[in-house]
Amino acid sequence: MAMSIAQFTFFSRAASSSFLHRTNARFNQFTFSTPFSTAAATCTRKKNGRLPVMSALELGGVKIARDDVVRDDPTNNVPDSIFSKLGMQLHKRNQHPIGILKNAIYEYFDANYSNKFDKFDDLCPLVSVKQNFDDVLVPADHISRSYNDTYYVDSQTVLRCHTSAHQAELLRDGHTHFLVTGDVYRRDSIDSTHYPVFHQMEGFRVFSPKEWEASGLDGTSYAADDLKKCLEGLARHLFGAVEMRWIDAYFPFTNPSFELEIYFQEKWMEVLGCGVTEQEILRNNGQLDSVAWAFGLGLERLAMVLFDIPDIRLFWSNDERFTSQFTKGKMGIKFKPFSKFPPCYKDMSFWINESFTENNLCEVVRGVAGDLAEEVQLIDNFTNKKGMTSHCYRIAYRSMERSLTDEEINELQRKVREQVETKLNVELR
Keyword set for this entry (predicted)? Predict the structure, then answer.
């Protein structure tokens, strides 16, 4: 149920379908032929801040070529910038803030539940539409299914939007207590807290009737009480003795549903979403007469607070001034900024059409500028007497590692304008 916090949005062709079939054994587990430290991370960074695109990955012993994921096909919207993130697995790096936080959560569950929870952090991020949406009861007409929000490899295959995409398969295989951690992918805006790739953790626990009958409570109430006790303990484990409150929420796969907020640094902050699993999910996956709870949290959102990291792009930095600041097993380390390079702002105005979306604009900007694009913000819009609507966007360019030259920025902006006009079919002003 790992669609939570501010990032909660609900949120094949033969080659791709064949790939899913080949890698489906044992929960779509995959391993890379070389570790991150000797593969993607050691590539020489290009001037625009992006790493070169690897031509192939090895998932579960099956080589996946770029053309299996990035295609010139009307049903495919995965760019090279997203393919390059496959296999980087920040959550498996023990000295990285994401990995440190994951391990701290593992420690809590191991200590309080006697190692009952099975842990999965290497499940393949390419999943079927059924796994990503249907199995967790996302409505057929929900906006999260659109090409504007989700990365489609083909009409039946996506890059998972949430770790809940593996929930049904794990249940069918008999797992009743599990934690699933992984990289997830969503088309999104450009600013300091949003990125098209981030990391989630889902927790799931199933109860049999004998566990709640002696309590005098019905199964739903018993599961909800146990869930809240578990997550309040997790919040104290991560944040200390903080004030907490529960907010009623809605998710399609749980009922009742809640959000946990804590009072931290003089404000209320949402930590995670959770709830009692819908009976339909349990029945569909062989868990008859059971109840269950599930929770989901975004690791970046929590890590930014716990480690004082101001910009989500920093998690992807290989600069030693960032990576050397963190130590395996240490949660109390606060990030010390190592540079304050100035941003450069460029404005761009154009007449939009009916198919225009801001997510599509951000994909174009990211495709050109990579992580040098710090923010894309709508600063003005109006509709003229002819009914034509104009948008003006301000793009902030900034490197976290060096100063950008005027020539670099002007060239980036020229390419952005050119591609916005051709790819989005808008009229520049």
Answer: Aminoacyl-tRNA synthetase, ATP-binding, Ligase, Mitochondrion, Nucleotide-binding, Protein biosynthesis, Transit peptide
Kindly list the distances between the CA atom of residue 50 and the CA atoms of 77, 82, 136, in Å, as whole numbers in the listed order: 19, 11, 34
- Asked whether the beta carbons of 326 and 230 are under 8 A apart, the reply is no
Dihedral class, residue 7 (left if φ above 0, else alpha if ψ from -120 to 50, else beta) = alpha
- Tell me how far apart the alpha carbons of residues 293 and 225 are, in angstroms, rounded to a whole number: 10
pLDDT in tens, 132-175: 999 999 999 999 999 999 999 999 999 999 999 999 999 999 99
- Assess contact for 166 and 136: CB atoms under 8 A: no
Q: Which residues pair with 58 in a beta bridge?
A: 63
Separation CA 145–CA 128 (nearest Å):
12
pTM for the whole structure: 0.85
116: phi then psi, degrees, rounded to nearest 5:
-75, -25
The dihedral sign for the CA sequence 165, 166, 171, 175: negative
Q: What radius of gyration, in Å, describes the C-alpha atoms of the chain?
A: 22
Is the Cα dihedral 291, 301, 269, 377 positive or negative?
Answer: negative
Cα(368)–Cα(365) distance, rounded to whole angstroms? 5
